[in-house]
TrEMBL record:
PANTHER family to which the protein is assigned, alphabetical: MHC CLASS I ANTIGEN TRANSCRIPT VARIANT 1-RELATED, MHC CLASS I-RELATED
Entry's family note: Belongs to the MHC class I family.
Name of encoding gene: LOC113040587
Keyword Methyltransferase: no
Entry protein name: Major histocompatibility complex class I-related gene protein-like
GO BP annotation list: immune response
Listed GO CC annotations: external side of plasma membrane; extracellular space
SUPFAM superfamilies xref list: Immunoglobulin, MHC antigen-recognition domain
Domain of life: Eukaryota
Length: 298
C-alpha cells in the first residue's frame, strides 16, 4: 500500500478516468514542529482540492473553483468533520499500536477512501483502505460489502465492522452513489471555471548554443491543442518530438514540442512554432529575442 503524503504539487498525464479521494494521516510519537499529528487531504484527479491539519486547525481550499463552494456553513461543517476525525484517529492509533504490540516509537495510521469514475464507460468503483505504518491494515471490499484484512492484527476490527450491516449498507450507498455524484459535481465546477483558457506559448532553449528548442504551451483549456513547426512557411516534422499532454495543478493543460536543431540552421532559415487552440492560432518565430533560457524545463 504505502500511501504517499502529498503536500507537493505535481503535473500528471491526462486520462478520462477520474478519481476523488480523501486521505487522513495520523502520526503518533513524532513531536516535531511543522509536522502535524493529523492531516487531511482531499484530491480530485490527484490534485489537492482542500487541506486541513492539526496545526493550522483550518480547512484550506486549494483550488480557486472550490472556494465559493467551501464557504459559509459548509466551511464550518467540513472543518468540524475533520476535527472529529482528528479526535477519533488519535484514539484509534493507540488501539492499533496495542494490536501490533508497539508501546512507543513513531507510527502512522492512514485511511484513504473515495471513488473512481470513468467518463467513457460510466463505470465507477469505490475504495476504503486503512493502513498502519504504510502497510495494509483493513480494506473494504465494496462489491462483497465486507471488510478484509491481510494481517492477524486487523481481525478484531474487521469482525466488528462486518457485524454492523446497517453501516455497511450506508457505505455501499456512499461509494456507489454519493461519492460519484460529488466527483461529477466537482468536475463540473472545475470545468466551468476553466472554460476556454488561452495557451501561453513560449520558446525555450537551455543556452544559446544548445541544439534543442522547446515550444511550450501551457495554461490552456480544453485540452485540444496542436503544435506544429514550420520551416520557411512549410510544415517541418524532421527532428521534432511532440510531448505528451500533461495537466497542471489548476486543471489547465500543458504540451511541449521539442525541435532538435543547430542554432546555425535556424539563423539561416525561418522557423516558426504554430499553436492552434479553439480556432485561434498563436505564432512564435524562432529568433534569439523570442527565446527564453530556462534550465528548469530541460
Ligand atoms: C476508530 O474509532 C472509532 C470510534 O471509537 C471506532 O468506531 C473505529 O472502529 C475505530 N477504528 C479503528 C481502525 O479501530
Ligand atoms: C523559469 O521557469 C520557472 C518555472 O516555470 C519560472 O518560475 C521562472 O520565472 C522562469 N525563469 C525565466 C527566466 O523565464
Amino acid at each position: 500500500m504505502r500511501f504517499i503524503i502529498f503536500f507537493i504539487y505535481i503535473t500528471l498525464v491526462y486520462s478520462e478516468s477520474h478519481t476523488f479521494t480523501t486521505l487522513y494521516t495520523e502520526i503518533n510519537g513524532l513531536a516535531i514542529a511543522g509536522i502535524p499529528e493529523f492531516s487531511s487531504v482531499t484530491t480530485l484527479d490527484g490534485r489537492q482540492i482542500d487541506y486541513y491539519d492539526s496545526e493550522i486547525k483550518k480547512l484550506i481550499p486549494r483550488q480557486d473553483w472550490i472556494k465559493e463552494f467551501m464557504s459559509g456553513d459548509r466551511f464550518k461543517e467540513y472543518t468540524e468533520i475533520r476535527e472529529r476525525v482528528q479526535q477519533t484517529n488519535k484514539i484509534n492509533i493507540t488501539f492499533l499500536m496495542q494490536q501490533f504490540s508497539h508501546s512507543y516509537g513513531v507510527h502512522t495510521y492512514q485511511r484513504m477512501y473515495g471513488c473512481e469514475w470513468d467518463y467513457q464507460t460510466g463505470a465507477s468503483q469505490g475504495f476504503d483502505q486503512h493502513g498502519y505504518d504504510g502497510e495494509d491494515y483493513v480494506a473494504l471490499d465494496v462489491k462483497e460489502l465486507r471488510y478484509i484484512t491481510p494481517v492477524q492484527q486487523g481481525v478484531i476490527t474487521t469482525e466488528k465492522w462486518n457485524n454492523d450491516r446497517a453501516q455497511l449498507e450506508l457505505l455501499r450507498q456512499y461509494y456507489q452513489n454519493e461519492c460519484v455524484n460529488w466527483l461529477q459535481y466537482f468536475l463540473m465546477l472545475r470545468k466551468v471555471d476553466l472554460e476556454r483558457r488561452a495557451p501561453e506559448v513560449s520558446l525555450l532553449q537551455r543556452d544559446p548554443s544548445s541544439p534543442v528548442v522547446l515550444c511550450h504551451a501551457t495554461g490552456f483549456y480544453p485540452s485540444g491543442l496542436t503544435i506544429t513547426w514550420l520551416k520557411n512557411g512549410q510544415d517541418h516534422d524532421e527532428g521534432v518530438d511532440l510531448g505528451e499532454l500533461l495537466q497542471n495543478e489548476d486543471g489547465t493543460f500543458l504540451k511541449t514540442s521539442t525541435l532538435y536543431i543547430q542554432p546555425e540552421e535556424w539563423e539561416k532559415n525561418q522557423f516558426v512554432c504554430e499553436v492552434e487552440h479553439m480556432g485561434r492560432t498563436y505564432l512564435k518565430i524562432l529568433t534569439e529575442d523570442e527565446i527564453k533560457s530556462n534550465t528548469s524545463k530541460f
